[in-house]
Amino acid sequence: MSRKSLISIGDFTKEEILHVLETAKEFEQNRVQNFLEGKVIASLFFEPSTRTRLSFETAINRLGAKVIGFSDASNTSQSKGETLKDTIKMVSNYVDMIVMRHPLEGSSRYASEEASVPVVNAGDGANQHPSQTLLDLYSILQTQGTLEGLTINMVGDLKYGRTTHSLLQAMSHFHPKFIFTAPEELKMPKEYKEFLDSKGIEYIETTSLDDYLNECDILYMTRVQQERFTDPMEYERVKDVYRLEASMLNNVRDNMKILHPLPRVTEIDQDVDDTPYAYYFKQAENGLYVRMAIISYLLGYR
Amino acid sequence: MSRKELVVSALENGTVLDHIPAENVYKALRILNLEGIENQITIGINLNSRQHGRKGIIKIADKFFADDELNKLALLAPEATVNVIKDFKVVEKKKVVMPEEVVGIAKCMNPKCVTNHQPIKTRFTVKAKGNDISLLCHYCEKISDTKGVF
Q1: Is ipTM > 0.90 here?
Q2: Is B118's CB within 8 Å of A83's CB?
Q3: Chain A: which residues have CB within 8 Å of chain B?
């Protein structure tokens, strides 16, 4: 049996990414699968989440496995001071796989080193969220018909927004061009720009949403996440910096699609929902098929 | 030259670490675990150096290091030279080599990194561009510079 974990999108090769996307397509066509019957998977959410947790747990159920776990660390032994290592060692004796979200960065990598079963990172603070990245890739592939040579405009919180960091790493396999639209305070961090430089991938930085709206294939909007800020004043300055409205979309490319990891607040007006460019709700649905595919692959079934 | 000075300078057996940036001498003692050992140690700080302006030097009597131990010094002093002394003679002179990985000695600068909250040995990949050295955390995947972490 496979013992591979998925912690960071960099853990998957280009071939593995494409394989998971292919499998997700199979599950989208037929979401009733039962080949994991008899398996138990732990869903350990040390930090609250709606979409990610429900979609992972639905994926587990649709594959025929059972779920144990918690959605709030406050009623676990962590609140009594148990170390993460002890919790993980104990749980991995019970289950076949661990799906984990934790507010500390690097916690999932650490857990995967201590666990005797595969670990799937469902978000470790502002660091990585690889299943989100794979569902973003799946959504890009479904809407554009290819992953090759696309222009991706990332908008909003590019400093703390982990989804944009992982997406740019994953897209780097496919010769993309990036536009980073962010206020000064929330610009793409140096390490990611250095990564792109090292791969010879072109990027443009701007503070204005209007600048490159009409020149991209994917508009990847993000929320400014209050919970990631250590300085409340910084949050107040930037929280409402961008707002996309339907009237701004008159001259965009025909194939352009708007993605958003959700939840959205004010950055996409509701009037955008009815335009042909909105794809974020379907994107969230895609998460189910992609998570089914990730679990199947890591357990050695697909 | 007085006799007293000679006693301090000459090393019968041991290791001389030279060309350490003056400001990093104390950190160098820490990174090499020389604090609290019982060997005789002579340190010089702000000595004149033709190449580096002001340098530091550390002489440790009766102590010889394994290469990977010494190479940790490259993080603080990429230009450091190591002189191995036996019987008052330099029997080996070498440069430190930048290690690829640093385990257990540096601290991650990211306050939200798991290594700052759980009892975990830190692990970094060393990224060196000339004398500009940074450390990539194996866990949180953030970059720390070498100024704050030792």
Answers
A1: no
A2: yes
A3: 8, 83-85, 102-107, 109-110, 124-128, 190-191, 230
Q: How far apart are CA A298 and CA A6, in angstroms?
A: 8
pLDDT tens sequence across B105-127: 889 999 999 999 999 999 999 98
A195 with A207, same domain: the answer is yes
Which residues 6+ apart lie within 8 Å of A16 measured at CB? Answer: A297
CATH topology of domain B3-95: Alpha-Beta Plaits (3.30.70)
Both A83 and A103 in a single domain? yes
* Contact at CB, B118 and A110, closer than 8 angstroms: yes
Q: Are A35 and A63 in contact (CB under 8 A)?
A: yes
Reported as a single tens digit per residue, the pLDDT across A100-128 is 999 999 999 999 999 999 999 999 988 89
From A83, A105, A230, residue closest to B113, measured CB to CB: A105
In a domain, A120, yes or no: yes
Does residue A68 belong to any structural domain of this protein?
A: yes
Using alpha carbons only, how large is chain A's radius of gyration in Å?
A: 19
**Are residues A209 and A244 located together in one domain of the fold?**
yes
Name the region of A149 (left: φ>0; alpha: ψ -120 to 50; beta: rest).
left
Matching residue, tokens 């049996």:
A1
Contacts of A11 in chain B (CB under 8 A): none
Class of domain B101-145: mainly beta
Q: How far is B102 from chain A (nearest CA, A)?
A: 17
Domain with CATH 3.30.70.140 in chain B: 3-95
Which chain B residues are Cβ-neighbours of A127 within 8 angstroms? 140-142
For residue A153, tell me if it sits in a domain. yes
Looking at the structure, tell me whether residues A104 and A141 fall in a common domain. no
How many Cβ atoms sit within 10 Å of the Cβ of residue A227?
11
Sequence length of chain A is 302
Give the pairing of strands A177-181 and A203-206. Answer: parallel
Q: Are residues A138 and A272 in the same domain?
A: yes
CB contact under 8 A, B114 and A8: no
The Cα A223–Cα A221 span in angstroms is 7
Cis preceding linkage at A263, omega within 30:
yes
Q: Collect all residues of chain A within an 8 Å Cβ-Cβ radius of residue B113.
A: 104-106
Residue length, chain B?
150
Output the pTM of the full model. Answer: 0.87
Distances (CA, A) of A226 to A103, A233, A236, A265: 14, 11, 9, 11
Range of the structural domain that residue A15 is part of: 9-128+286-298
Using CB atoms, pick whichever of B119, B140, B143 lies closest to residue A106: B140
